[in-house]
Amino acid sequence: MSNALHVPLDAANARTAEGARSPAHPRLIVATTILASSLAFIDGSVVNVGLPAIGRSFHADAPGLQWVVNAYLLPLSALLLLGGAAGDRYGRRRLLIVGVSLFGIASLTCAMAPSLVLLLLARFVQGASAAMLLPNSLAILGQSFSGEAKGRAIGIWAAAGAAAGAIGPVLGGWLIDAGSWRLAFLINVPLSVAAIALASRYVDSSIDDTAGSLDWSGGALFTAALGLATWALTEGSGRAWSPATFAVLGTGLIFLLMFLSVERRLGDSAMMPLSLFGSRSFIGLTLLTLLLYAALGGLFVLVPYVLIQAGGYTAMQAGAALLPLPLVIAVASPAAGALAARLGPRWLLIAGPLLVAAGFLLTLRIGSATSYWLGAFPAMAVIALGMAGAVAPLTTAVLMSVDSSHTGAASGLNSAVARTGGLVATALIGPVIASSGPALLSAFGVAAAIGAVICAAAAASAAMLIAPAGKSQP
């Protein structure tokens, strides 16, 4: 669900030229992009409520369940920027159709997977496909509309993404309770078929002739670095830290240094232009995003798991327990955005994460003998209010922290950082997933307290690094 709370709106807009013509079938184009992107938003949230059932089906240990989530997040985090650039170069409709097709096939493979290994491979393909379809669904809106119509179309797309992220866990939980976790993956198949049919018929084929060459070396090095680091963190947290684990983690860091060297050499044509980090505010926003969405990523995996395993919830009830988050954020975010426009985003980016930290501390009330209304609900409501105060101001602040020629790269990078935060957090929750009985609640309490500290650190990064309204920073 955290994916649906952070959408790369401005990256798509920045990649498309102004003065786009009015499409012949505007509603069908919007419907196409919503259907395509809903695949990623639903799948990113529905799997969390299915982890206990998947674990029982394959007799999976903690690292195995962590990889069910991270096999998807890893390619999505690493390849999101490359997917958008590939759409510019090879055609956004083409990349959208290829991405949706692969996602549908991978979803069917997930539903039929006879082993955990095959499920993880299919999840990896889902993540890589999502990295193609997400940025290009937005870029299609950017190329198809202009002016106020573009703003309305993107607003509808964002609202639909939040709704998909909210409905996904409930619908998936119902299917899991009614039959099997495999049915939850089949939700994507009819959506894929409908999105492909609409895209083939109503979306124009367009290629940006000014697009430069793709940063394939950067994408490969970043994927390798993230993959090795994720494996080491997952093994270390879920089983035991060993010399081999530290060796793999060190190798991942070496690949990360190689990636930074390549990006420095490529300059502004890199998938992650290092010139962005010349702004102190952008550094603070990137750190805030990494920390805040890391805490949320761990929360969205652990809360449904604990409610099912320790609280006796059904999968559908556990999915419904998270509903206050998208509902409150959808209602309160416009007001937060308007307040950020008047006062500047800095204070909201300090107060929002602090409120989220308070919500994390309230999750300590979740237990086997605590009702939903006294345990999970207050925590979810407070976290939602904090996120509502941070989501819109964060987008505004990212755009304000860089010059106009880098807004697309900055917004896309911020979105990739958000997903990377969730990836790292999920790799570190092994001790909680491996626990059972009273030990599970104790381990969850420790994780929630750590999450609160991480959110407080996110607020501190905003206070120390983000420029106050009316002032500029180098």
Tell me the name of the CATH class of the largest domain: Mainly Alpha
Classify the helix fraction into a percent range.
Answer: over 70%
| CATH architecture annotation of the largest domain | Up-down Bundle
The largest pleated sheet is described as:
none
* Cα end-to-end separation: 35 Å
Q: Report strand %.
A: under 5%
Round the mean pLDDT to the nearest integer and report it: 87
Sum up the overall morphology in one term.
Answer: globular
Over all CA atoms, what is the radius of gyration? 21 Å
Number of strands: 0
Q: Would you tell me which CATH topology of the largest domain applies?
A: Growth Hormone, Chain: A
Relevant CATH superfamily of the largest domain:
MFS general substrate transporter like domains
Which spans of ≥5 residues are poorly predicted at pLDDT below 50? Answer: 9-20
Tally of contiguous helical segments: 18
Total domain units: 3
SSE series: HHHHHHHHHHHHHHHHHH
Determine the structural class based on helices, strands and strand pairing: mainly alpha
